[in-house]
Amino acid sequence: MTENGSSPTSRRALLLAAGSVGVAALTAACSGPAGTRGAAGQPSTPPPLSPSPGASTPACVLAVQAGAGPYYLDLDRVRSDITEGRAGVPFRLDLTVVRVSAGCRPVAEAAVDVWHADPSGAYSTGGAAFLRGTQVTDAAGRSTFRTIVPGWYAGLAPHIHFKVRPDRRTETTSQFFFPEPLLVQVYKRPPYAGRRAPEHPNARDDRYRASGAAMTLAPVPDGDGYRAAYTVGIA
């Protein structure tokens, strides 16, 4: 398995293999490098963030479900680093999947899909697969994605889509939002600054007003980018 531009590894095959060789080893084999990446000329330290009302990382609540949107593709690309060379402010997303109905026990061997727009607001389509990827949770329900802060498009709040599949019959689909103070700062940096950013990237979106309080990440500075952790509760 390789990270960028490689032949995809089937999630279905991976889930079948996990039972015999151990999901932890498979997750480690498919993970990307520990370092972060950014566009040339970006500042070495990200600006400090102001506290954002509504930003949260709930420990044991059901994720607010939302549609997958028109850009979901089941590409079965198992990898941690999903940038594929796309420039942007680095962002690491650490997810933990728990089953709320079972006392919030970690869910191992769940497939987690992530996909989002690039700084120009474009999604990969056709044969492209940038900013898309799948991870399988380890014994503690954890998975990590290395990507960039998403861009904006179509008057919607910037967001990262995700889908959790604990088995072949059920799934939980939703999206993460970002605090507006972070977005305002990030969109002043290249390559986002190449187009005019919205003044209020979140407030204009009905979906954010409906579920933003529960699904907004709480990023912290991490090298020249940011990182955030979130516990996804499934039924």
Short description:
This protein has 235 residues and is an alpha+beta fold. It contains four helices and nine strands.
Structure keywords:
single chain, 235 residues, alpha+beta, Protocatechuate 3,4-Dioxygenase, subunit A, 9 strands, 15% helix
Give an overview in words:
The protein is of the alpha+beta class. The protein has a single domain (11-34, 54-234), classed as Protocatechuate 3,4-Dioxygenase, subunit A (Sandwich), CATH 2.60.130.10. It has 4 helices and 9 strands; from the N terminus they run ααβββββββααββ. The strands form 2 sheets. Strands 1, 2, 5, 8 and 9 form a 5-stranded mixed β-sheet that branches. Helix 1 (11-21) packs across helix 2. It is globular. Residues 1-45 and 47-56 have low confidence and may be disordered.
SSE order and pairing:
Layout: H1 11-21, H2 23-30, E1 90-99, E2 105-106, E3 111-115, E4 132-136, E5 142-148, E6 159-165, E7 172-177, H3 180-186, H4 206-215, E8 220-222, E9 225-234
Parallel strand pairs: 1-9
Antiparallel strand pairs: 1-2, 1-5, 3-4, 3-6, 6-7, 8-9
Helix pairs in contact: 1-2
Percentage beta strand: 15-25%
Distance between the termini: 32 Å
Radius of gyration: 17 Å
Tally of individual helices: 4
Report the CATH C-level class: Mainly Beta
CATH architecture verdict: Sandwich
Estimate the helix proportion, in percent: 10-25%
State the domain count. 1
Biggest sheet descriptor:
5 strands, mixed
> Secondary-structure element sequence?
HHEEEEEEEHHEE
What is the average per-residue confidence, as pLDDT, rounded to a whole number?
81
CA-based shape: globular
What is the CATH H-level superfamily?
Aromatic compound dioxygenase
CATH topology: Protocatechuate 3,4-Dioxygenase, subunit A
Low-confidence stretches: 1-45, 47-56
Secondary structural class: alpha+beta
